[in-house]
Design goal:
Blueprint (H helix, E strand, L loop, with lengths): L2 H19 L6 E4 L2 E4 L2 H6 L15 E11 L5 E11 L2 E2 L4 E8 L21 H4 L4 E6 L15 H15 L4 E10 L1 H12 L6 E7 L5 H6 E2 L2 E3 H25 L1 H30 L9 H4 L7 H6 L4 E8 L5 H13 L18 E9 H5 L4 H12 L13 E5 L4 E5 L8 E8 L3 E3 L7 E6 L9 H5 L4 H6 L2 H4 L16 E5 L7 E15 L5 E9 L5 E10 L11 E2 L5 E3 L18 E14 L4 E7 L6 E2 L2 H7 L3 E6 L3 E7 L1
Parallel strand pairs: 6-7, 6-8, 8-9, 9-12, 12-13, 13-14
Antiparallel strand pairs: 1-2, 3-4, 4-5, 4-7, 10-11, 11-27, 14-15, 16-17, 16-29, 18-28, 19-26, 20-25, 20-28, 20-29, 21-22, 21-26, 23-24
Helix pairs in contact: 1-7, 4-5, 7-8
Length: 651
């Protein structure tokens, strides 16, 4: 059983390591994996109008104090590398604020660079060269640190708090600390910020591509297991924990030999953890449902504490990211907490906003977001909160910066959901139409359940974190149908399409989407996948976003579900709890609300909007073994006249 994961590990980790090591020019972004310059307007929008901040030039060299030992309260020793400013090869006088990142991927992966690599997996010579001390620590059970690894183990929150206090007392430190890093490192920031008391040395965080609810964002989509990402993550974690120590060992063989026994044990622990966790999930065990395991690890549960601690956060997300759903919810949750409202509610049209909590959501996959050149933006944030510079970032009236996929530009907003978008219902109509007018005569269309779907589509790239598109540089070279025409994935007995007439004027889809399916089935469970596409006049179909749902987990959470004033569902929030699972009654008309992840895309005049409804998404999603038995042989009758999509549209 272990040989298969290790094979996946080898292939995937080589791709991931290459991607993570890729350099992007400072001030650049990546659209669909291809580097594009970031407009200066985005940087200006992060501050109050009329104010301009200029980054310091590089004034210092970079020195390194490697493999420092830090003992945790339970006796476990973690290890960290400390990078510090130098003048003429000697430690600069300082004092300097400290930035800290905690990685499960091995601190040595990027630990030997002396110039900015432009990525958020650490370290950051760019900051050191401009007067910051940088601490890069291995999470317990990884790299050179002792202990046993657990996925966002709550013990790591305590470790993070201890590392912040340790970092604040480094020689030549001002005592002020900021956190940075992407993905796992970004989520760790949120959890650490809540684990500290108010008034701690931690003064600001900069989480890149973090999550909000790990079960709903990435572990599953609609209760269906995200097996594609699980395989990728196994390769990434194990692979980089192999590459990192070897990279450090090339410069310091003594360090490699002294840490070798722990690192070999870590690889075995990681393989055992992933194999056991995956087996438990796919067999329908506790982690297959949204229960205690996930609740103890979810950033959404700590957003209120972060605000209560007075810690500002600048978030960076991606519209093709693994956490596409969660990043705008982190933004609205932090803004709500600051305004004294529920962190799971939609922001109100009248509530005040603050520049202390911002989100830049770009056209990124997970890896292109992780390796985006965010150095100037991060420097401005830390100059504001760690050095007290007057950058006016806290005074911006538009703290939400979202990329328009159709117009190919960034837009500035105050709130999420977007105030300029209004819920607009399109009904599934006869002859595969999508219409504003509800069909007068109910009919139905037939779908059959399939154990496999067409892999030719954006999800294949998105849920492998964008590795194919980033590795090739051009998506068509190695990631089929990722960036262009996906009409080939819209045909078959397991899928059907519904398409609007050509738009009389342009319209922008902005925010979360609800797809309501009313259907009967011949089985005791159902599987639904919905994708939203932009159809050009020549028939080219560009995928924008998707959602899914396992029918037995259709129960809605009352407080987390967002509704319009007239009661229509805008964002369906399911409990996904085992106690709420309900079998489908064969032959009974049943309602399913699919949460389609948010997007921001202007559809041009003359283009059409299409919904593809399917019963499988390969290799992205898979049902658990118990669910598989209840899905086999299913035939569905989708009711035309009562099924619809609720689109947030701005004109």
């Amino acid at each position: 059983m272990r040989r298969r994961p290790l094979a996946v590990l080898t292939v995937t980790s080589l791709t991931a390591a290459a991607a993570l090591g890729a350099s992007t020019p400072a001030g650049a972004r990546s659209q669909n994996g291809i580097a594009t310059p970031i407009p200066a307007s985005v940087l200006r929008a992060s501050a109050a109008p009329g104010h301009h901040w200029t980054p310091d030039r590089a004034r210092f060299g970079v020195g390194k104090d490697g493999d420092r030992s830090i003992r945790m309260s339970d006796g476990t020793v973690l290890r960290a590398d400390v990078y510090y400013p130098t003048t003429n090869g000697k430690p600069a006088r300082g004092p300097f604020p400290v930035v800290l990142t905690m990685t499960p991927y091995g601190k040595g992966v990027l630990g030997n660079s002396s110039s900015s690599a432009g990525d958020q997996t650490g370290p950051s010579p760019y900051l050191v060269e401009r007067g910051f001390i940088d601490v890069v620590a291995d999470v317990r059970g990884t790299g050179a640190s002792q202990g046993e690894f657990g996925l966002f183990d709550p013990r790591q929150d305590q470790d993070g708090a201890a590392l912040v206090r340790w970092a604040a007392h480094r020689p030549r430190s001002t005592g002020k600390v900021g956190l940075y890093g992407a993905s796992y490192l970004g989520i760790d920031q949120l959890l650490t910020a809540a684990a500290l008391p108010k008034g701690s040395p931690l003064k600001a965080i900069f989480p890149v591509v973090p999550g909000n609810d790990l079960y709903k964002d990435t572990a599953t989509m609609g209760g269906l297991v995200d097996v594609e990402f699980d395989a990728f993550y196994l390769g990434l974690t194990g692979g980089l924990n192999t590459v990192g120590p070897l990279a450090e060992g090339l410069q310091n063989p003594a360090t490699l030999m002294s840490n070798l026994p722990a690192e070999v044990a870590h690889l075995k622990d990681l393989a055992d953890f992933d194999a056991k966790f995956t087996a438990t999930t796919l067999s329908g065990g506790p982690s297959a449902y949204d229960g205690t395991y996930w609740h103890r690890r979810n950033p959404v549960n700590v957003l209120k504490k972060i605000v209560a601690n007075g810690i500002p956060a600048y978030l960076v997300g991606g519209e093709y990211d693994l956490f596409q759903r969660g990043e705008p919810l982190d933004f609205s949750g932090l803004q709500n907490a600051w305004a004294g409202r529920s962190v799971t509610a939609p922001m109100s049209a009248s509530q005040p906003v603050t520049g202390r909590y911002q989100l830049l959501d770009g056209p990124f996959t997970h890896l292109s977001g992780s390796t985006a050149a965010l150095d100037p933006l991060m420097l401005e944030w830390f100059d504001t909160w760690l050095k007290g510079r007057h950058t006016y970032m806290a005074q911006t009236p538009t703290p939400l910066h979202y990329f328009d996929l159709g117009a190919n530009r960034y837009t500035a907003h105050q709130r999420y959901p977007f105030a300029n978008a209004h819920p607009t219902r399109y009904w599934f109509g006869p002859n595969k139409t999508l219409t504003r007018t509800r069909p007068a005569r109910p009919t139905s269309t037939t779908l059959v359940w399939s154990p496999v779907g067409n892999p030719c589509g954006r999800p294949t790239d998105q849920w492998s974190a964008g590795a194919p598109s980033l590795a090739t540089g051009y998506v068509h070279a190695g990631a089929p149908c990722v960036d262009g025409n996906d009409t080939g994935g819209q045909q078959g007995p397991d899928r059907t399409t519904f398409t609007t007439a050509p738009l009389a004027r342009k319209a922008t889809i902005a925010g979360p989407i609800d797809v309501t399916v009313n259907a009967t089935a011949t089985t005791t469970d159902t599987e639904w996948v919905a994708e939203v596409e932009d159809i050009a006049p020549d028939g080219t179909s560009t995928p924008l976003t998707e959602g899914a749902l396992l029918g037995s987990l259709r129960h809605l959470a009352r407080h987390g579900t967002w509704r319009s004033r007239d009661g229509q569902i805008l964002l369906p929030d399911h409990t996904y709890a085992k106690r709420d699972a309900r079998p489908v009654v064969p032959g009974k008309l049943t309602r399913y609300d699919l949460e389609v992840f948010p997007t921001y895309a202007t559809i041009a005049k003359g283009h059409r909007i299409r919904v593809t409804l399917a019963t499988a998404d390969t290799p992205h999603l898979a049902p658990t073994v118990p669910a598989l038995a209840n899905l086999a042989g299913g035939v569905y009758q989708v009711r035309i006249g009562s099924s619809a999509i609720e689109l947030p549209l701005a004109h």
